[in-house]
Amino acid sequence: MLNNLILVGRLADNPKLKVLDEGVKVCHFVLAVERPFQNQETGQYDADFIPVSVWRGFAETVIQYCKKGATIGIKGRIAMKLNEINGIKFNSVEVIAERVSFISLKNQEKEEEQAE
After folding, report:
1. What is the DSSP secondary-structure string of 45-98?
2. Which portions of the chain are predicted below pLDDT 50?
3. What is the CATH number for 46?
4. pLDDT of residue 26
């Protein structure tokens, strides 16, 4: 069996860090991945917004270097989670990133230049 994927996209928002009771760190963000074809009606490229979790050391690195708009690549796996809200159970899908590649951190560089 194989559960492996590679995605390249832009962060839709700033990543958020959580520290669990055991001290394990996890970072959550949404990756906007552009579709490879144009929308027939608008002529624009639509995007899929994919929830991603990064654990432990990679979580801290993503928080340190990535901001909204940064382009990153991830290698990971798909995970199904059973959630319950107000007694209603539902499945959700997220990507667990096992490897993160920083492709373009231009937004962060621009912010640093403006701060100087």
Report:
1. EEEEEEEEEEEHHHHHHHHHH--TT-EEEEEEEEEEEEEEETTEEEEEEEEEEE
2. 114-115
3. 2.40.50.140
4. 95
